[in-house]
Amino acid sequence: MPELLREWAEFNVAMVGATAALAGLLIVAMSVNIARITGESSLTARIAGSLATLVLAIVATGLAIAPEQPARLFGLEVLLAALAATAFQVHAVRSVFADRAQSPTVAVRFGKSIAGVLPLLAYLSGALALVVAGDDGAAAGLWLLAVGTLLAIAAAIVHAWVVLVEVLR
């Protein structure tokens, strides 16, 4: 596994830097309208879910560049971090589904929730592949973690844009 992780080192270094920068920018952007954002619980929960997923991306890509880790240990670390981020996303989904005034139909509520769920599904699948299959499942697990990282970045950008647009209406 350490050899396989070395093949992913440049990707992980780039992603940990990009994701950390994006998380910082999102916090600054949200702070401009924080009073209006915190006025709506579903917006606050969605931003918290997005930031938790970005932190997961930082943790996963940061741990991936730590030296000499067995596949199962790395998978377990990412699995624990993904479960923590999932708790935030579950709260966000519940908040969206409870806010019928802003999201009158199930389809709208589903649409507002899916972007935050997809990266977590990739992370959980990738981490489980690493834990269960160990070095044998490492390639598939690492690809799923890479997809999770890219989806986390995309979802955070989408959520930030949507929250800012909703706040400024």
Provide a brief overview of the structure.
The protein is an all-alpha fold.
Description of the structure:
This protein has 169 residues and is mainly α. Helices cover 86% and strands 0% of the residues. The protein is built from 7 helices and no strands. It has helices at residues 2-7, 9-32, 34-38, 41-64, 71-98, 106-133, 138-168. The model has no long low-confidence stretch (mean pLDDT 89).
What separation lies between the terminal Cα atoms? 50 Å
Looking at the structure, what is the overall shape? elongated
Helix content: over 70%
In sequence order, what are the helices and strands, one letter per element? HHHHHHH
Estimate what percentage of residues fall within beta strands.
Answer: under 5%
Rg: 17 Å
| Class inferred from helices and paired strands | mainly alpha
Mean pLDDT: 89
The number of helical elements comes to 7
- Can you summarize the main beta sheet? none
Give the beta-strand count.
Answer: 0
Low-confidence stretches: none
Task: Please describe the topology of this protein.
Layout: H1 2-7, H2 9-32, H3 34-38, H4 41-64, H5 71-98, H6 106-133, H7 138-168
Helix pairs in contact: 2-4, 2-7, 4-5, 4-6, 4-7, 5-6, 6-7
Keywords for this structure?
169 residues, mainly alpha
